Amino acid sequence: MNAAAEDATPRIPPHVAEAAMEWWVELQSDPVTDDMRAACLRWRGARPEHEQAWQIIAAGHSRLHASALPPALAHAALGAPRGKPARRRAIKALAVLVFAGGGAWGIHRRDIASQWFADYRTGTGERRDIVLADGTRVTLDTDTALDIRFGEHERRLHLRSGRIHIDTAPDGDSRRPFFVDTAQGRAQALGTRFTVRQDDGASHIAVYEGSVALIPRHGGGLTLGPSEQTRLHPHGTDAPRPTDDRDTAWRQGMLIVSAMRLDDFIAELGRYRSGWLHCDPQVAALRVSGSFPLADTDRALDALANTLPVDIVRRTRYWAAVRPRAAPG
């Protein structure tokens, strides 16, 4: 495949590729109900990239037949009970086989493989704490991919996806600068504690101690001080605004919000939940306040139904929707 052809193929985010593979495995497992098949069809129709991912799996169906897979992988993916870690690991491996493989299956293989095979990576709903060689402490949020590049002259992190919280350590006598690179530019820590989040089209940086210099890929930057946050774009930054300590509650496994739009809340909660989570436009503008556990998203959804005029509709454990409450009777 030449470069022009590869650029013409759709970009499938890793979390969509994994969700598509989860659906494929679910429909190969017993029992399969009509509700499950209908839920899969709804997931495929929800967004164009969902159907694109599904068609890529369909195109490589022969390679996914149990007899064509390594025995251990086939057993774990198709034979292990639902929800078991071995099954989840096998699904990730199958997704890599399909979406990061060679030949006609590869679609932006370098982008996808670089996230699955990053130095450090968390799955959906997972958090991880690491300590770097210089003593810097980093917390990885859900679905995060991070590369570490420490050299003689600099300390550099490359955030490929997700969100990290960083508590930098002094670098002794070497005084190597500490950088975090994102798709939009670079953040240089100046003795600090801060978070960096890679969103679509922009990076979000929030500083809680010290300061951080922001350097867009094209254009001038700025320096954030304590309790300031902004969004970094390739050609500049937004105006700084105050931080909110509630934004770091994810490190303790909580989502704390105040008067947040329901559709925004569902989008954020969905980052910690496998499968498809949808908010009906009729209730999107409702406001949510409270503390919600990220380790139990079903419990968080049930809390919504107890405080707002909404129903939680579940077809399978991979498909849920928030809809207006049905009239009694």
UniProtKB/TrEMBL annotation:
Residues 18-55 form the FecR N-terminal domain. Residues 223-246 are annotated as: Disordered. The keyword Transmembrane applies. Signal peptide: none annotated. One of its GO terms (molecular function) is sigma factor antagonist activity. Keywords: Membrane, Transmembrane. Residues 119-212 form the FecR protein domain. Residues 235-246 have a biased composition (Basic and acidic residues). This is Putative transmembrane sensor. It comes from Thauera linaloolentis (strain DSM 12138 / JCM 21573 / CCUG 41526 / CIP 105981 / IAM 15112 / NBRC 102519 / 47Lol).
